[in-house]
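Standup notes, structure subgroup. Blocker cleared on the zinc ion input:
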Amino acid sequence: MVLGALVYVHVPRFTIHDSPFTVLLGAHTSTNGGVSSSLPRAAAIGATAMQIFTKTPNQWREPAIGAEERQAFVEGVRGSKLVATNAHDSYLINLASPDPVLWTRSLISFTSELRRCEALQLNALVSHPGNFMDDRASGIARNAAAITLALEAVPGDTRLLMEMTAGSGTSIGSTFEEMALLIGALPAALQPRVGVCVDTAHLFAAGYDLANAYDDVWLRFGDVLGFERLGMLHLNDSKVPLGSHRDRHELIGEGAIGAGAFRRIMTDPRLAGLPKVIETPKGDDPDASDRRMLALLRRFARG
Ligand SMILES: [Zn+2]
Ligand SMILES: [Zn+2]
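Run returned:
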């Protein structure tokens, strides 16, 4: 029975506050004013899933989150409709860098990201694989070495989800095969704590045609990585064409991917239990824009 299967997809991953059939849907939400300031914003858009930055993502500064703020956040989440929460790490981090100074700095920053996730009891940390700069295989090895050190330094329940990239420049992780290589390079004991985040805009820009070959794309994902590795989805349309290897998010249904693929995603039983978070342009009124996007996706989910 389909409904029974859904329960089994849900239960191992998250504590369900509401019905186990809740669609885990939300947006990247601003923490401007402190991490707990994201909670009323998430409530205002009816979010059941939420992604945040736990620091300013384009600065190296690593602010500690005070005990009071941490408690306000953890208790706030508990009292909210949020079922799945995750952080996205800083844009400056490059765990694949051949420059030992940048690699070390990235490792320290990434470890702090993980620590804040554990402190805030977030379900996952989403991280972009780095840029190899010199040689792809060495870059993957450096990335895996850094992830290993960080996960060993910060044991806990927060899952690390490596995000599929658009494949610009020397970025790692724009193919399922390469993502499988990266995860496969981690010690076996750590691998269960690591999964994949699929960003639809990145996938499309990397050359996976979600618009015209939806089934083929997911068949390949299942073959190469396996759905048990899939931890969450970033739902974004793309301003740029298939295979353009650029990362430009567009409103759902208004870009090169188009509404059809998102309709499929929202009714796909393989993706039913997964948190789905939008990172679409917010315009002048973030709440209004996000609310409109989520309403559209909920409509798609109802079929
Ligand atoms: Zn990202
Ligand atoms: Zn993303």
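Discussed briefly. Strands lie at 25-28, 49-52, 84-88, 124-127, 159-163, 194-199, 230-235, 237-238, 249-250, 276-278.
Next: hand off to the docking folks.
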